[in-house]
Amino acid sequence: MTNDFKIGLGFDVHPFAEGRKLILGGVEIPFKRGLAGYSDADVLCHAIGDALLGAAALGDIGDHFPPDDPQWKDANSLKLLTEIEHKVWQARFKVVNVDATLILEKPKIAPYKYQMRKNIAAALKISVDNVSVKATTTEKLGFTGREEGIAAMAAATLRT
């Protein structure tokens, strides 16, 4: 089973909330609102975590970090990614790469993408060259177009 590859997909959504910091890819982005969620609501890290867990057939992020468990209240999602990487490693897989897309109208994330990539790469113990973070809008359509929240999707590749 050497060089066996697995691919996983992840998706997450969080609504905007007043009085919260906006954290994406472990980067605090200056913005008038943050995202609502039990942890730090880092929608990008959550989508990546689900992609990794899915590729390893280990369930989803809610299985491992249930939102009714007080230990995950306001948790740093980069730390959750580090724990997910360890679970993937225990299942005898190595993270190869991650490709993720943020879906939002605002804020613009171009100035922060490289730091997000670095943070994610460090959490997953891979090269920054193996982490892609992109962003797109929905041309003002849907809940992201109305600036009600942010969505993220991710794909991850693992190998044995």
Protein architecture, described:
The protein is globular and about 45 Å long. Helix 1 (43-55) packs parallel to helix 3. The chain is an alpha+beta fold and 160 residues long. The mean pLDDT is 96. The protein is built from 5 helices and 7 strands, in the order ββββαααβαβαβ. The longest helix has 14 residues, at 77-90. The strands form 2 sheets. It has a 5-stranded mixed sheet.
Helix count equals: 5
What proportion strand?
25-35%
| Helicity level | 25-40%
Please report the total strand number as a whole number.
7
Terminal CA distance reads: 7 Å
- Main sheet strand line-up: 4-1-7-5-6
The parts where pLDDT drops under 50 for at least 5 residues are none
Q: How is the quaternary structure best described?
A: single chain
Largest sheet: 5 strands, mixed
Mean pLDDT: 96
Listing every helix as H and every strand as E from the N terminus to the C terminus, the arrangement reads EEEEHHHEHEHE
Radius of gyration: 15 Å
Content-based structural category: alpha+beta
What overall geometry do the principal axes of the alpha carbons give?
Answer: globular
Which features characterize this protein?
globular, two-stranded antiparallel sheet, 160 residues, 5 helices, 7 strands, alpha+beta, five-stranded mixed β-sheet
Q: How is this structure best summarized?
A:
With 160 residues, this protein is an alpha+beta fold. The protein is built from five helices and seven strands; from the N terminus they run E-E-E-E-H-H-H-E-H-E-H-E.
